[in-house]
Amino acid sequence: MTASIATSQTILVVGGGIGGMTAALEAAECGKQVILVERNATLGGRTALLYRYFPKMCHPTCGMEINLRRLKGNRNVRVMTMTEVLEVSGVRGDYTVKLKLSPRYVNANCTACGECAKAVETEIDNPYEYNLAKTRAAYLPHNMAYPMHYVLDPSIIGTADAEKARAACKYDAIELDMQEEIVEIKAGAIVWATGWKPYDAAKIQPYGYDRFANVITSVEFERFANPHGPTGGKLLRPSDGKEAKNIAFIQCAGSRDENHLRHCSRICCMASLKQTHYVREAYGDDAKSTIYYIDIRVIDRLEDFYLKVQQDPTVSFIKSKVAKIVEDKAGNPVLHGVDTEGYHRYATTHDLVVLAVGMEPETRGIKLPDDMLLDSSGFIEGSNLPAGVEGIYGAGAATSPLDVNRSVQSATAAALRAIQVVHKTSTVEGVR
Amino acid sequence: MADVKIEMKTAAYVCSGCGLGDKLDVGQLARIAQKEGKMALVRQHDFLCNSEGVQMIRDDIENEAVTHICIAACSRRAKTEAFNFPSVAMTRANLREGVIWVVAEGAAHDEVRQEMADDYVRMGCAELKKSRMPEGNPNHTQLKNLLVVGGGISGLTAAFEAAETGYEVILVEKQAQLGGWAGKLWKRAPYKTPYAEPQETGVAALAARVSAHPLITVHLNSTIAETAGAPGRFAVKLAQESGSITEVAVGAIVQATGFTTYDIAKLPELGGGLAHVVDQAGLEALAMAANGGVMKRADGREVKSVVFLQCAGQRDDSGQHLPYCSGHCCATSIKQAMYFKDANPDVNAVVVYDDLRVPGMGEDFYRSAQHKGVIFAKGKASSVTTESNGLKVNYKDLILDSGATIQADLVVLATGQVPSSGVDVILWDKLTKEADGGSIEAKQQKSELKSISILNLTYRQGPDVPKLKYGFADSHFICFPYETQRTGIYTAGPVRRPMDIMQATEDATGAALKAIQAAENASLGRAAHPRAGDLSYPIVRLEGCTQCKRCTVECPFGAIDEDERRFPVFNEQRCRRCGTCMGACPVRVISFENYSVDTVGNQIKAIEIPDEFSEKPRVLILACENDAYPALDMAGLSRIVYSAFVRIIPVRCLGSVNTIWITDALNSGYDGVMMMGCKKGDEYQCHFVKGSELAGYRMSKIGDTLTGMGLEPERVSSFEVAITDNAKVAGFINDYVAQLVEMGPSPMKGFG
Amino acid sequence: MSELNQKAVAKYENNFLREVEERVEDGEWVKMCMQCGVCAGSCPLGNAWEHSPQKLFRMIMAGKREEVLTSDAMWMCTSCYSCIVRCPRKLPITHIMHGLAHYSHRLELAPKGQPTRELARIFWQNLVKTGRVNELKFSLAVYFKDGFVQGIKNLLSMQGIALGLVKARRLNPMEIIGGHKCRDIGGIQKMLAKAREIEDRRQGFTS
């Protein structure tokens, strides 16, 4: 790859989740040249790891299939996975971006036949299962992966296992001497769609996420509900594999809390309401879901969904921020707190606790371009350059804790702003 | 149908990589392609998708003038970068995900495995012969300018952002000035750190920039008298208040017609109608009058205490008021309470709420209000009554679990947003049917309805964009928030769903992009979402048409009108290429170049049907290409085994399935047909709106035909398959095949 | 009604929140509560009181002056700080509870005979007398606060511990006569009077 692939007319999109894919595709379908870079081995981001969407209970992979088809049919987008932005320099209309390409050890010859995975013996924690399951060290991230290429975990490089993988591949797709590469590209505008990460639940000490096996996070619960997840779609609790029928959902786990995240993460109320459906789907009338909340924040037409869940006799609501969780002898989590509506103390035993963890921007820990303005939680608020001079735009959950729908809305808007930059640059330069 | 310009030359490429060569007799596949498929050129390769294999195909296209290729290798969803030959028509025979990965291992299955592969090669060749390279809609359009309807913050933003991208915009506002509701606000909620203070709305400045923009023309006091045409060629009549009509032509439309406030007169129990009970808009007017000074009531008395009642006439489950939450009202009340506190900290300002909904950084705005001394009480108001010169609010304090009252000089009801979305086209359709049947009443109601229409579309399916629940002209899709059911017309702002200014601004910017994109696509003769870039388009053979109107009624996007003789008029630029019209047409006169009654019908007929004594049933599966087909593919990827007796054909949408395919299949001796589509009903997942619903409806009618053929109705069966159902779908197949085996072979075998 | 209480009622009319903000230690934080209830659930003495902190805060905002100031809830606080640590709004709840207790005591609204209050009163009286806490006299005063018979019972039950303390030289029986004092008791008392004057001014009891 050389610097010549991109020009000042190119829009760089950083992050290949639903926000980044949308920004890239929307711009490309307006006829613009786009480079989409993604740090992981596949596009799809966190939405690809969700089981269902609220409020329709449809599957994220359905929309992803459409987006991938759009992508496959559009020659304006160039996708670079396992690529990170190291540095951005220059000005609006003329950025130089230094990219780091990590070795995949598998080239485009890969047909996803899976022979390498059979050959390799080492197992690693599967990051696409939030480390809840193991995978071979030669693996396909998931069934909807794009590009549909295997990846070798760096830990086996230099071992006999890597050699076995290489030997098993009939298509010369495995290149064990692949090296990290640094490349520079040009871009006229940049859309920053680096998304979010779940708040580290272990930091919420009274809930014992790090101590109790049966306290898990909402993103992990999505994997449990997924038929392709670690439990094959069964809601089994981690400590003993027992069916988890009586599940507590704790809202604001990290959010709306000055000890953790100042902001409200917006999506968690809906996410928990959605997850009560999983419980009901699995166990019917034997299901029991309890939502512990401060305020149920399901705005606009989503109210419908809340009403529906309220009518479900297997679901109850307690207005309370749970004070602490302890474990009984059988490994059941016991929740302590006070129902503030009229003041009732409780000590309630559940099979499993799902912490509705907050959304934290992925901006932290990434070197951001200097002119980006962050809010107090680290979400991208805009540019600290005056209007008309800025050329880098936040999109999706990198800008605010957003659900998929609003993330797409945000990314579409960001795509237009980026197009404006290359439009103006081209008008000035007379390229058009 | 016009014939292709250059002579058709076919070629088939059989791959033996990924184990195909080990599990299948690829030589036999090649022979079938040549002898039965009648491919002019057949080549084998042991790794077709590598650079050498791809080069081989390229060379044939270049040197051998190959125009049509069938690739017998992996799924059409795989290796799309390698198998990218934009200059030729292409079909893919799915031997990997569709055969060797799903048929049970072992020599015992060699025969059925090979038969399955043989058939897929036959089908690939058969489809290819009926396919043509899509050339794009020849009716190219030129217009790329936009019409923005509505001059509130959403409309202003859409117009400005589109103009800044270099597109001309015509902005229409029915009022005498720009700004809409946002223009009537004293301040707006903040959307930047520290999220602590109300901010200037900036509406006046934006309106000024829009008015001065060289690419924007503003029409005030104007409404839309008529909208005809399609993306890239909309013809719009603007009616001035004076009655004069201006005709304009535009490429795409953004409808940002906003909302009206819910009428507080409908809330007498909360004091609606009493003096000094206002809605949030009324409070803004008081704030404008106060101009930053102390807040006074309409009677001039200074307000010392004010109570905000949240969710007034909203989140209502009694069926009397709005069932939804308008989202912005909590932050709006917070902002308005600050008007009082900022002018005079001694004012007692209380917000009575059920759930305080200030998501995201709104939490900081909430904190700021608390810091200023605004009191928040979780409670439910029961009544507001007049008392001496003020008001008494009775509510239940939900924390203290007791009744409470507050005296107030002023009460603000946080009522909701009611979308200004024009005519309900479902009602319109009903009235049209009644009026056509001679009902004078229906005719009158129709003309009344027309007076509230916003766009006055001349479309067969009604004058406005179809509404979803509660009247919002929204998209039904989570991943695709801009997809209305009218191509090239995008709704933005609170007409789409309740929203605040910040979201409306973002929404309008995105809608501007979508409108630009629609105009660009139309100019290139391409489809819009979800088949963006598709160059195929519906071609109709009108001489065969019987004017049955099914296509015009069933098109989910209102793309087809009727002329005065009731023949369908296709507006290709409005079409999303789902093929619903093709599925609907009883005389089969509608087709696409690469997707037609023939491309599929030919595949169905191409397979070899074993005789009734073979104990090898044949089952046709018509699978939605967006969900069911990927699910089947992923079953392969996960090596989930299913019966080798099925033959799968992906369809653009179950709505495109023409019943002739079913009867043809059964006539030719298939033992059963499985239709796999998306979830239907209120939470439908079909990206073409009602494909599976239509298919279900059509299949319900096919029972008689089957009985007439002497077949059991179970021989045609529908299944809802989601994209994640790869294990489930294998179960469906195996169960169904077992059911058919039980039933015995089709009596039609041997007559086909 | 005590004079201080009457004055306070007159001054703040119905605005109890304002009164708390101005007169109770860290009272200005009360309005920041969002009623999540984590304090209520975190308090180890939760079962012992009638009103949880969060509920008291809501009562303050709802103007329930009498109920708040006569509540014994804030007297139950043992300063474990669990509530402060967990409060998502970082309210200094422990301090507010003590502030409320102190204020209700000053207004003489606090429940009569409330054990914590009595203990504190005895402690204070003991302390200001000599400038040092006389542990022996303090203990005796506590034991006998509920009458002679109860006092003897208390004494007997604590006998073993007392002897142990004497053996370990942690308790000097001779302290019963006088006990040791600070060098400048007059100075200490002046200092305390000054502190009270400042505090009263700060809290608006005097101008």
Residue windows where pLDDT falls under 50 for at least 5 positions of chain B: none
The largest inter-chain interface, given as chain pair and residues per side, is: A-B, 89 and 91 residues
How does CATH name the architecture of the largest domain in chain A?
Answer: 3-Layer(bba) Sandwich
CATH superfamily of the largest domain in chain A: FAD/NAD(P)-binding domain
Q: And the CATH topology of the largest domain in chain A?
A: FAD/NAD(P)-binding domain
Predict the CATH topology of the largest domain in chain B.
FAD/NAD(P)-binding domain
Number of strands of chain A: 24
Rough shape of chain A?
globular
Quick summary:
Chain A has 432 residues and is of the alpha/beta class.
Report on this model:
Chain A contains 8 helices and 24 strands. Chain A is of the alpha/beta class and 432 residues long. The two termini of chain A are 26 Å apart. Chain B has 5 domains: 133 residues, Rossmann fold (3-Layer(aba) Sandwich); 172 residues, FAD/NAD(P)-binding domain; 155 residues, 3-Layer(bba) Sandwich (FAD/NAD(P)-binding domain), CATH 3.50.50.60; 49 residues, 2-Layer Sandwich (Alpha-Beta Plaits); 144 residues, Rossmann fold, CATH 3.40.50. The longest helix of chain B is centred in the last third of the chain and has 23 residues. Chain B is elongated and about 95 Å long. Chain C is mainly α. Chain C has 2 domains: 109 residues, Fumarate Reductase Iron-sulfur Protein, Chain B, domain 2; 82 residues, no CATH class. Chain C is 57% helix and 0% strand. The longest helix of chain C has 20 residues. Chain C starts with a helix and ends in a 5-residue tail after the last helix. The mean pLDDT of chain C is 92. Chains in contact: A-B, A-C, B-C. At the A-B interface, helix 1, helix 2, helix 7 and helix 8 of A face helix 10, helix 13, helix 17 and helix 21 of B.
